[in-house]
Design a protein that fits this description.
Pfam families: Cu-oxidase, Cu-oxidase_2, Cu-oxidase_3
Function: Lignin degradation and detoxification of lignin-derived products.
Structural class: mainly beta
Strand order of the largest sheet: 19-18-23-28-25-26
CATH class of the largest domain: Mainly Beta
Oligomer: single chain
Bound molecules: CU-O-CU linkage
CATH superfamily of the largest domain: Cupredoxins -  blue copper proteins
Shape: globular
Cofactor: Cu cation
CATH topology of the largest domain: Immunoglobulin-like
Family: Belongs to the multicopper oxidase family.
Protein name: Laccase
Number of domains: 3
Helix content: under 10%
Length: 521
């Protein structure tokens, strides 16, 4: 293993997308930003130099950060922001992970343009648990880029004539393939607010890895990726010469998804004329999106081989139930007398003024309390109407976990305003999705069907709209770890909380000391 040093200059850059040019915040002038390459066991340092007028932090989404919470990146959770003109060196070691992840800004909405891929290659000499793909250089940046598609979807109204040019517009990408070869595509959903379907006309995809964890390979024609999630698929070029459309479309259970088809890229067999028109899909967005999504989610399994066992916690020390969702709170200063809030167990999280990890490590009182409720205040019919417990409280409340204890969290979508899919992301850990269902979680029946053998392991999980997801993890990483909805709008509204993991000996013995250039608030 070695040390890989990167430099990220955060700068404004005029960028052309969707037939328009404007200055955006970028890393090293690139959108999407540079891909970070490393091998399992490598140490990575990234010096982030902030040359814009906004505060900045960068999060390495899915990197475990064992004892190095200082490098995790969420603003006011593990660090104070890097202020304009300042710099900070993120320093972490990649342990027990290989595959694709992403990095992104973790302050305000800046991750819209400040994001990029992380490619972790297996240790030297250690093969993939599947046949080596022919062209392993097919990586983000040159692979079909989901974030560009989202930018297109993000335009209000129907597809503009500019968007309709599809793959010929700037940012559109053509993947050149040769008949008979197999390619690995690394797909990252860097979108702010939409879970996305990904398809390639005329081809099946073999899923081999999600969130930098190997899966049991399975074939599908549609994959579903939530914001923050990553998926590696194998594509075998065996559909005959031609040009095939790659489509990305949002998964929404709401009628507001009008602008739901976007051509973002093409797969082009060598020997095909660049000017030939692509083979399209008649149905890029599945008509019946929910069953397709459910089917995809249920097909995901950990590889659980001798070499890569699924270490599912079989016993549970902390059994938690988190009701997550949106609500409406009275608001005297709002025009219609109310405002939309989002909460976990009716607590809408308030960002502190100094970072939680600093407050924890240096024993600064008054920044947070550790009385986050392990259950919702009033159990009720989470998926029914009318709702009973809409009144949300505010607070910077954390849940304290004993170091090395095992944790189960039932994430129940409350569907108070509208059933919504929530991609919940946990920092500092991977977790196993041991169960999933629609409707209310039934504590008597549902645990009997939990998969404790080969459940999928990941860092971000889509909680189904009007349904629940059960996760388990081992709290083997001391520090302060954020958990939140990866839809930026819901995070902003308060759908977030944090865990503090302590070994009882005090943070100074469990967490490495902070780097000397750690920003102050
Ligand atoms: Cu990818 Cu807390 O974020």
């Amino acid at each position: 293993c070695r040390v890989r040093n990167y430099k990220f200059h955060v700068v404004m850059r005029n960028t052309t997308r969707l037939c328009g040019t404007k200055p955006i915040v970028t890393v090293n002038g690139k959108f999407p930003g540079p891909t970070l390459y490393a091998r399992e066991d490598d140490t990575v340092t990234v010096k982030v130099v902030n040359q814009v007028k906004y505060n900045m932090t960068i999060h390495w989404h899915g990197i475990r950060q064992l004892r190095t919470g200082w490098a995790d990146g969420p603003a006011y959770i593990t660090q104070c922001p890097i202020q304009p003109g300042q710099s900070y060196i993120y320093n972490f070691t990649i342990t027990g992970q290989r595959g694709t992840l992403l990095w992104h800004a973790h302050i305000l909405w800046l991750r819209a343009t400040v994001h990029g891929g992380i490619v972790i290659l297996p240790k030297r000499g250690v093969p993939y648990p599947f046949p080596k793909p022919h062209d392993e250089a097919m990586k983000l940046g040159s692979a079909p880029n989901v974030s560009d598609a989202h930018t297109i979807n993000g335009q209000p109204g129907p597809l503009s004539s500019c968007s309709l040019k599809g793959s010929s517009q700037p940012g559109g990408f053509s993947l050149q393939v040769e008949t008979g070869k197999t390619y690995m595509l690394r797909i990252i959903n860097a979108a702010l607010n939409e879970e996305l379907f990904f398809k390639i006309a005329g081809h099946k995809l073999t899923v081999v890895e999600v969130d930098a964890i190997y899966t049991k390979p399975f074939k599908t024609d549609t994959i579903l990726v939530a914001p923050g999630q990553t998926t590696n698929v194998l594509l075998t070029a065996n559909s005959g010469p031609g040009k095939y459309l790659v489509t990305v479309s949002p998964f929404m259970d709401s009628p507001i998804a009008v602008d739901n088809v976007t051509a973002t890229a093409t797969v082009q067999y060598s020997g095909t004329l660049a000017t030939s028109s692509p083979t399209t899909l008649t149905n890029p967005t599945p008509q019946n999106a929910t069953p397709v999504a459910t089917n995809f989610m249920n097909s995901l399994r950990s590889l659980n081989s001798k070499k890569y066992p699924a270490k599912v916690p079989l016993n549970v020390d902390h059994s938690l139930f988190f009701a997550i969702g949106l609500g409406i709170n009275p608001c005297s200063t709002c025009s219609n007398g109310s405002r939309v809030v989002a909460s976990v167990n009716n607590v809408s999280f308030i960002m502190p003024k100094t970072s939680l990890l600093q407050a924890h490590f240096f024993n600064i009182s008054g920044v947070f309390t550790d009385d986050f409720p392990g259950k919702p205040p009033i159990p009720f019919n989470y998926t029914g109407t009318p709702p009973k417990n809409m009144a949300t409280t505010n607070g910077t409340r954390l849940y304290r976990l004993q170091y090395n204890s095992t944790v189960q969290v039932i994430l129940q979508d409350t569907g108070i305003i509208a059933p919504e899919n929530h991609p919940i992301h946990l920092h500092g850990f991977n977790f196993f999705q041991v169960g999933r269902g629609l409707g209310n979680f039934n504590p008597k029946k549902d645990p009997k069907n939990f998969n404790l053998v080969d459940p999928i392991e990941r860092n971000t999980i889509g909680v189904p709209s009007g349904g629940w997801t059960a996760i388990r993890f081992k709290a083997d990483n001391p520090g302060v770890w954020f958990m939140h909805c990866h839809l930026e709008v819901h995070t902003t509204w308060g759908l977030k909380m944090a865990f503090v993991v302590d070994n009882g000996k005090g943070p100074n013995e469990s967490i490495l000391p902070p780097p000397s250039d750690l920003p102050t608030c």
